[in-house]
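request received
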Amino acid sequence: MSPDAARATETDRSSGHAQDGTRRLAPTRVLDVDPLLDDPGTRIIVCCGSGGVGKTTTAAALGLRAAERGRKVVVLTIDPARRLAQSMGIDSLDNVPRRVKGTEGDGELHAMMLDMKRTFDEVVEAHADPERAATILANPFYQSLSAGFAGTQEYMAMEKLGQLRARDEWDLIVVDTPPSRSALDFLDAPKRLGSFLDGRLIRLLTAPAKLGGRAGMKFLNVGMSMMTGTLGKLLGGQLLKDVQTFVAAMDTTFGGFRTRADATYKLLQAPGTAFLVVAAPERDALREAAYFVERLAAEKMPLAGLVLNRVHGSGADQLSAERALAAAENLEDSRIVDQGDGKAGVRNSPETQGRSDSPDPSAATPEPEPSADAASADPVDQVTAGLLRLHAERMQLLAREQRTRDRFTARHPEVAVAEVAALPGDVHDLTGLRDIGNRLADNRRELPEPSA
Amino acid sequence: MSRLQVVSGKGGTGKTTVAAALALALATEGKRTLLVEVEGRQGIAQLFETEALPYEERKIAVAPGGGEVYALAIDPELALLDYLQMFYKLGSAGRALKKLGAIDFATTIAPGLRDVLLTGKACEAVRRKDRAGRFVYDYVIMDAPPTGRITRFLNVNDEVAGLAKIGPIHNQAQAVMRVLKSAETAVHLVTLLEEMPVQETVDGIAELRAARLPVGRVIVNMVRPQVLDATDLELLRTSPRTAFARSLSLAGLGGARRGGSAERLVEPLLAQAEEYAERYALEQEQRSVLGELDLPLHELPLLAEGMDLAGLYELASELRKQGMQGVS
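response:
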């Protein structure tokens, strides 16, 4: 509240922004989650970010909050932790949205887990006649491709999103993105798979069958057989044959694939879509978040803001780590050196007297019981020293989180941020998700007012 | 001790950091190690505070006692071209293949080929010998894909042998699998003392064992120091708040009277202790879950100043102290 010497020193040391005396650098913008969730214009929210930052939990918490504020919501999760899935009652993997029971209010929450193979199969079935579809589904190359090679999961997540949106059954779709090796993968993989399925190589591989007799194509055919020969040698002839059969059978559906991929991509750029980048206040996660912010801008995808999970705070942040440690040492020293003359208090007295927020006269005499020479052995003193050390650790953590965050804010001051206070344990039920939702929406109160 | 050390773990547990620390730890006493990156994230370069690593083995650190750490970021496309060159002397035809998208096809789409190339390159480094017949690297440490994908990544044989039934890729996959399933390899999993990463570790180990891949150790990363023990926590619950206010005041933090500086610290400090107690209990629970795995456990401390190069050396010496080198 009031100017505090210890606080200013802390700021000085940690971030070099001491001019306003607040320890935290307020973000340029605070992300207000509720208006985003309530806006009927918001139809899709995509949560993205690197692994291990609580992306799925954030998606589920946002879905629940939107539903309890009256909207009809579906949450599409990709690979939820078992207990999180159970908390929403979707431990069955059947690729269809299930109503989540136990929500409050008029809205509805549905949740589903992506089954990428089944989604891929559905796409094939939708685009080929039954006989051709059966050929494709039985093809060994197709089977490995659909069971999860680089990009398939991302592609199918986007495909499923497109399907859900096309049904127009929900007010809001919240989608979690696959746990990729990098957060950017999910934007690239569908394109990569799409361009492969539609690409030059595939056309060449299928060409011999189509162009067989034509005289002008002879020379191309020679080149082709050289190439397929090499690939055949490398991969084994039978695999190549599988690929060719697959490609021939898929030929008619390629157009469909490409069109769908393009449509979903456009959907992500459309006004009803909002991206939320999820991160934790750690160096790697925030670096990835920064890349993602830049990438979304380059792709003209609408970014709503950054959700910063697991942020720590302290109710006693007027007490710096240094002072807490010094005080802890005072208490611990007194155990060894039996003293009753208030030496412990003297060590810190100048600082203590500098604290103008304590008109209480006892503040100036920090040794209320100078006669307590037995205090040295008091177990309460020792445990208090522990409390102070714990606090010092917390303040160091705060400073570290703040430094990492400042680095992000300096790079992207335009990005609105919602902070979610750290929880000691994991989320197991709707109550836990609701709590996260409250913390997401409440983050405004935890931040100091931006100083002018 | 196994010469190929594979390090995996759930996202966010710091597996790259642990892999790098292990490479440093194993390099002490004049050994030479190779730290291999397979996911193209350049995490190693960031950790060692150097520029992005090319597809080339280069020395990135010196360990205490004169050991050396080399690093390599494997690029699957270049690895495939390398490979084609080695077996077919392709030359410009290789570049033509690249232009046509065949290389991209082969490395991103062709089932398992990418993984064969990545693991194959690591296995080649494990077996490579110099002219005197000594191994070029004493240890190869791989910063591998996360726990959720590690078994499929290492079990390339199943994926590829089923599809490419003959040909050099098939043979390569077989050779790689012989190394990966032997005692020459150990797969370590990095976790945190939190429910989700521990659950993933337990599941990951079951998968690795089912695939007959050699499970090494469990490394618990970012372990917070124990500040208060059970007795302390009990005392915190039972003592009157005024006693803490008096102690804080005694420590030099202002007045103990109602509204005094010390007194106003009591509530928030006790709240922090309560959070600590809750976390402490959860951590103990996770420790016992990990204990049931019946695998060697190592714990690495959370570094108060965050992760940097100095911290990496600190973790490496911690791993050495805990006997991470020398035993299987």
